[in-house]
Structure formats: C-alpha cells, structure tokens
Amino acid sequence: MTLTFIMVGLIIAGLLVWQAENLWLGSAKWLSLISLVLLSTVFAVFVLNNSVANEDFVQLQVLTRVAWIKTFSIEYALALDQLSILLISLTLLLAFICVLVSWREIQHHVGFYYFNLLLSIAGIIGVFVAVDVFLFFFFWEVMLLPMTAIIAIWGHEKRQFAALKFFIFTQVSSLLMLVAIIATAYFHLLQTGRLSFYYPDWLLLDIPLEISQYLMLGFFIAFAVKLPSVPLHSWLPDAHTQAPTAGSVLLAGVLLKTGAYGLIRFVIFLFPQASVQFAPVAATLAVISILYGAKMAFAQQDFKRLVAYSSISHMGFVMLALFAFNTIAYQGAIITIVAHGLSSAALFALAGMIYHRIHSRSLTDMGGFWHSAPRMGGFALVFASAAFGLPGLANFIGEFFSLVGVFQVLPAFAIVAAVGLIGSAIYGMVLFQSSFQGEPKHVITDLQLRELLICSSLLLLLIAIGLYPMLLLKFSFGVM
Amino acid sequence: MSIASSSQPLLTMTMAAAILPQLIIAFGITLALLLVAWKRSQRTIALFTFFILLMALLANISLLSQPVIQVTQLLKVDGYATFAFNLILIAALSVLRMSHCFLKTSLEVHDEYYLLLLLLVLGAGVLVVSDHFASLFLGFELLSISLVGLVGYHRGNQYSVESGFKYLILSATASSFMLLGIAFIYSVVGDMSFNARLSSELFEQGLGLFFQLGLLLFVSGIAFKLSIAPFHFWTPDVYQGAPTSVTFLMATISKIAMFVVLLKCIIAQRYLLLESFQTFLISFAVTSMLLGNIMALKQQNLKRLLAYSSIAHMGYLLIVIIVTSEQSLEFTWQSSLFYLAAYTVANLSIFLVISLIQQHNIRSGNQEDITLLDLKGLFWRAPSYGFLMILGVLSLAGIPLTMGFIGKFYILSQATIANAWWLISILIIGSGIGLAYYLPIIFKVFSNVVITSPEDKKIKSHFIEQTLIYSLITLGLILGILPDMVNQLIRS
C-alpha cells in the first residue's frame, strides 16, 4: 500500500505542481522539493518500520498483490528487497539533486517540467518494485515517456533527434523483451496449466536450456540497450549531451541502473543456466564496452559527451561483474552501481553549472576556471578522481571488488578490464585539466549555496561509502 | 435449399429483436427521407440522425448478452458482431459532432450528408452480421456507394472530384472482383452460405485452381476496402481529399465492418487450411506492415500520414487472422475486436483534434489542409487538444497507458502462442519504424511557438467539444489502464 501511495503521491504532486506554477510563479520547485521530502520520509519510515518484521528484506517481500487484467491473469504485485530498497533510495536522493540543479536552469514551461520529473521518478520507482513482469514492463515503458519529453522539450540544440533516438532504441529492444515475457508466461501455461506473469511463480519454472537461451536473450537485449553495452550504446552520448542537466543526472544516475537491475533480477536470477552459458559473450561485450567507452571519452571535446562515454565504460564493469557469478563480484557490481550513480550525477551537475555560467559545453571554451572558482575546481577534481577510481572514494571499492571477483572466474577478462582503469585516469585528467587548469579563458562566479549543497552531499556519500564500504557490504542483496 | 421452402416462419420475433438496431437504422432512413420532404433544416435533420443512432446504440447494447441467433440464412447475430456494431455506432455518433462544424460553414441544408451517413451505418451493420455471400455483397455495396457520395461531398474542395472519382472507380473495380470471386467459389462449393463447411477431405485433395483464384479475387476485393498493400494505392489520396469526418468514417467504420466480415468468413469456411491462401495473407501482411510504415515516414500532410499508418495497422491485424487456429477462435475474436476498438478510439482522438484545428484554420482564413506544421505548439496553445492528440498518437504507436498497447499485446501473445516468429520480427521492425514518424508528431505538438497575437493563436472551442475532448481523454486513459472493462464485453 505504502509503495502505491508513494507512486500515486508523486503523480498527484506532479499535477499539483503543474497547476500551482500557473497560479503562483516560482512555486513549482518548492512544491516538488517539499513533496519529495514528504514522500521520501514516508518511504524511509516504512522501510525502517518493516525491516524487522521482514528479516531486513533479505528475501523478496511481496507487499501488494491485486488482480489487474483478468484476461491474461496479470496482477498488480509489488515487492521489496534490499536491492530495490537501495536503488529506490538512490533514485529519491538523485530526485532531490535533479530538482536542485533545475532551480535556475529551466525557464519556460516550468510547471510541466516538474510534472515530468516527478512522473519519471514515479515510473522508475515502479520499475524497482514491480514483481509482476507485465507490470514491470508497464513501468519500464511509462518511465520513458516523461524522460523523452524532458529531453525533447528542455534539451539543447539537437534535442528532438536525441530524444527520438533514445526512444526508438529503448522501445524496439523492449518489444523484444515483451515477446520474451509473453513466451515465458505461455511456457508457464504449458508447464503448469496456468497463465502467470508473477515473478515468484516464474522463479519456480524449470525451463529447458534450448528454450531459455532465447528467452534470456530477449531480456538481455533490452537491458543491454539500457545499460548500455556496446554495440547498442549509440543512443546514450546523444541523449546525455542533449538533455537538460537534470535529465542527464537522472539518465546517468538512475535510468542506466534500471538496466543493471533488470540484468540481475530478470536475466541472472530467472535464467541462471542460460546466463552461465551466455557469460563469455556478455563478458566480452562488457570488456569491449569498458575499453571502447574509455577510448571514446578520451577523444571528446564536449564535457557532457565525455562523461557520457565514461558511463559506458563504468557500466561495462557492472555487466562484467554480474556475469562472473560470484558474491564478491556481485557486491562489487552493486557498489559500482551506487558509486557511478553518485559520481556521474555529480559530474553532470558540474557540467550544468559550468554551462549556466559560460553557455558552452565545449572543453575548448573552458580552461583556467580554478583561478576564479577554486571551490568548484576542488569539487571537480574529487569527482573526476572518483570517476577514475581513486582509493578512498566509492568507485574504487566497486571496481576493486568487481575485478577481484571476476579474476577468480575469468582472469583474462579481468586483466584486460583493468587496463580500462588506466584509460579512465587519462580521460579524468583531461577533463579536469582542460576545464580548470591552463590559461583562464573566463572569469566565473564560484559555487553558490545551492550548488555547494548539491556537490557536498554527493561528495559526502562517495567518501562515506569509500571509507566505510560495510555500509553497503553488510547487506547480501539477494545472494546467499 | 431455397429460403421459401423452409417450413419455419421466415422471421420470428426473436430474430427481429436480434436485428433491431439494423431495423431501427433502416426505418430511420425512410423517416429521414420523409422528414426532408416535410421540413428542410440542418438542425432538425442532425438531431434526428443523432436520435436514430442513439436508439440503435441502446438497442444494440441490450443485445450484448444475447445468445447467438441465426436470422434467416443471410444473417447471424452473435456477441462479436454486436460488439463491432457498437463500435461502428459510437464512431458514427461522434462523426455527427465532428462534421457539424464543417457543414455549418455553407448555407446549404445538408440532408444528403446525414442520409448517406445512415446508409453507411446500415451497410456496416449488415456486413458485421452477415452469414452469407449475398448479404455480404449487399452490405459491401451499401457501404461503398454511400462512401463514394460522402468522399466527394465537399464540392468546393480542390481535391473533391479527384478523390471521389478515384474512390468510385477503384471501389467499383474491387466489388466486381469480389463478385467474380464469389461466383468462382460458388461454382466449386455450390453454396453461398458461410456455414457450408467444406469437408477436410476436400481440402486435402486440393480444391483446384479455379477455387483458389476465386478466393484470391474475393479477398482482394475486401483487401481493397481494408487498404491492405498491394491494394492500398487509393488510400493516401482519398484520405487527404475527403472531408475530415469522412476520412474518419473510412478509417474506422468501413475497416471495422470489412475486417469483421473477413474474419467471420475465413473462420467459418476454414480457408486457412489452404497453404497457398496462408502464404498470400502472410505476404499481404508483411508488405502492408513494411510499406505502410516506410511510406509514412516522409509525409508532411497529417491525413496522408494517417493513411499510411492505417495500412500498417491493417497489416498488424492480419497477423491475427494468419495465426488463428481451431482452438483459439475466441482469443482471435477478442484480439481483433480489442485491437479494432483501440484503433477506433485512437483515430477518433486524432481526427477530432484535426477537425477542430481545421475549423479554427478556416475561421482565421487559412488553408484547409492540415500539415504537421499546424500542430506546432498545440500543447501550449490548447492543452486539452494537445493532450488528446498525444494520447491518440501514443495509442497508435502502441505505448503503454493506452489501449493501443494492450491491442499490440494481444497480437503479440497470439503470434507467440502460434510460434510465428517471422511475423513478430516484422511487427517489431514495423513498430520501430513507426515510432520515427509518430514521435515527431508529438514533438511538434510540444515545440515552442512564438505567439504573435494572442487572439489569433488562442484556440477557442465550444462547450460540447470540450466535454467530448475531456471524456475521450479519460476514456482513453481508463481503458488503457483497465482494459478488462472492454475485454468483458467481447464474447460470443
């Protein structure tokens, strides 16, 4: 009930915010901030209150289960476990960041903008809690619509092309997933005599390998597009670059993670045998993504595009770790998910702040910002070094664990992937040097209070996880 | 077996009750003719037509829970036919309002328009319940001839004559093809009733070239009406040239009726047992899906774009027929009727907005043709119009939250059960291409406009239209989220 309440609450808040902006200029951002605070509190209280009763959500705890479309015995079923709680917390945290970074940036159709923002957050939360696979697919698509609108309406100069590409890539791949979903449900009908889209039912299925490998592939492609993995990544640089700052933060911080979440929940747990069989291919794709992303990031002249390519590289680590099938790598993947969510969000937020000051994303227009904005420079340095995995920051823990885990199973892959870390150090330094060092090209104002708040909260979390990883490692996230 | 020789009375009261909606419409047509002789007034005839259609709709809704009734040899009323006729009547009712404005602009009294509309509905009503090639042909001709009249109705329009003629000639050709096909089939089977089941041995022996040729001719006649590729060439021109409300009629009523009768005929006669027939249908479906979507990509005129998209949609629907089997008949009916319902609601949304923009354009002295540029910034100028448009387009594109998605889900489920992987992959490719023209429409609706003079850009609309728009928005969303409300109605 509470989860439904949070999602419906976000939608209603969105509608209110939209109307309020028409009546009272400037109220939208405050109202969305307030509603986010309230709903996050509800979520936190709910999780804390129920964690004892549900054994810390180690197993998937089904909270709501109502019949929805009886013709296909589709249900409205929601559940929580540690993984989804973690990802929802990340989503809500980044939702605050999104509202804060949009504070000054969005100048027209403000009310509708915040409506879309809250709607996409509701959709993302839905993705993380749905355990009826049809419902999951429903949310999976619904979260795309407001996201596409955010890119297409408030984005930069080539926004419509980017939004179109983003939507077509995800939509076509998710149609493949839909076919796989239907096929699995009808396989359930064949095997048990009952049509079911209910995830816990599916876990009990025993699907022969020759069928399950195709079913798994349907799911895998959809999530590989979202993650993204080479060769299905080409939507990402465009979408990230053209989106407004909050759009990029949300895309990099959370939307990519829905791909990782899907891989964990619907590929690896649902089709374990087929995944093991597929692991060499997936690991190869992951390693290619790591190296290719790093190489491409190095070659970019556009601040946001560079960060976008680095995301491809980092999500490669996640995929590689997931397909190593051991606990250490799995935990590494989860920490990388969180750490990348925070650090890439921070870098995109910085890109937005710079864009706000000099109206350019090109690195050639930047340089020497350190003189006029040392505080911003300091943050940029830390976030860039977080991105290339400096010890003491969260990303290091994630990548270290991933590589250690992978090395036990696929040593060759781990060695090649480790080279990617060097690449990330190079592009990280290129990013920092060309924007903050060298001859001063612009004199810019340093961080304001609001911006300080954004940066320091993200930094604090990165350091906290980096220095005390047990914060996350004490949870098992569904693996025994 | 002739009709006269049967010992039972030709028409009992239960039979008459079963075709009551059609009878009401037929009676209404006669009354309307008398009404024209008595008093010629735009208002009266519009209200009268509304009343007749409403009565028919009410009578038809009461039939939904009836068992299957055979009405003479010619007609058979079942739940599916009733549901389809409901859709047709609802579409016709909304057309009344849609055409109201464009008819109001000239000083003439447009009795003929309403008469033709009623005739069209009667034709469609006969088609959906027909159980015999004779009644099929009767309905087909009623539908075609009244549509020809309607297509060319707007005499002042520059495309009127062209599109009217195109439709007349091609439609006449199609019906003669179909008639010849029926004759060929009759020459082999010796019975014109759909119930005349061909025995399985006959299928195994192969029915000979003559029969297959007849079947092909018959189906191509219907495919012409459904604008399935390669019988689609008239579609874009006629869609563009016809008045918007008539285009809507062509897109919905004519397609629902033809599709239902095609499905009925194919299921009853078990044509799908013929390999060659299945191959034909598959090639039709594949070409329609690909060609419709690809051709729509570069269209700037909104109605032309919708014409091509309708070709693609009919291709998707053909999949349902191709993969149907003896065991899944009920599912087949559910899928196709749900898809048709979703298609109708989506088209209704889009065409309503088009006709309202057109009306606004005419009032401010602009041209009548609606291009994509006319949609620019619609969402900011008139939020409710923009939202309805977006909802309709999303539904056509098959995105969740809309009925179109559930319709696509039905088709995909059915194709998956039948293991029709090739058709599924073509469908996915087709919908991928489809997004490349559906989304730009939405982006246009959202794009920024510089409002020069507030009076000029602000779109005003009538109270009835506002209610219609808001109710369509709610209907679209509710049925998209809770499709069970429609599913429950579709049963035999």
Q: Overall mean pLDDT score of chain B?
A: 87
Number of DSSP strands of chain B?
2
Structural class by SSE content of chain B? mainly alpha
- Structural class based on helices, strands and sheet pairing of chain A: mainly alpha
Radius of gyration of chain B (Å): 22 Å
- Tally the helices of chain A: 20
Indicate the percent of residues in helices of chain B. Answer: over 70%
Any low-confidence stretches of chain A, pLDDT <50, length ≥5?
none
What's the tally of helices of chain B?
Answer: 21
Count the domains of chain A: 2
* Topology, number of strands of chain A: 2
**Strand/helix succession of chain A:** HHEEHHHHHHHHHHHHHHHHHH
Shape of chain B: globular
The separation of the N and C termini of chain B measures 27 Å
General description of the model:
The complex is a heterodimer of chains A (480) and B (492). Chain A is mostly helical. Chain A folds into two domains: 1-262, no CATH class; 271-480, no CATH class. Helices cover 76% and strands 3% of the residues of chain A. Chain A has 20 helices and two strands. Chain A has helices at residues 2-23, 27-51, 82-105, 110-129, 133-142, 144-154, 159-192, 199-203, 209-226, 235-242, 245-268, 272-298, 303-322, 327-358, 369-372, 374-387, 394-409, 411-436, 449-467, 470-473, and strands at residues 61-69, 74-80. Chain A is globular and about 70 Å long. Chain A starts with a helix and ends in a 7-residue tail after the last helix. Chain B is an all-alpha fold and 492 residues long. Chain B is built from 21 helices and two strands. Chain B has a two-stranded antiparallel ribbon with strand order 1-2. Chain B is globular, with a radius of gyration of 22 Å. Chains A and B meet through helix 5, helix 6 and helix 7 of A and helix 17 and helix 18 of B.
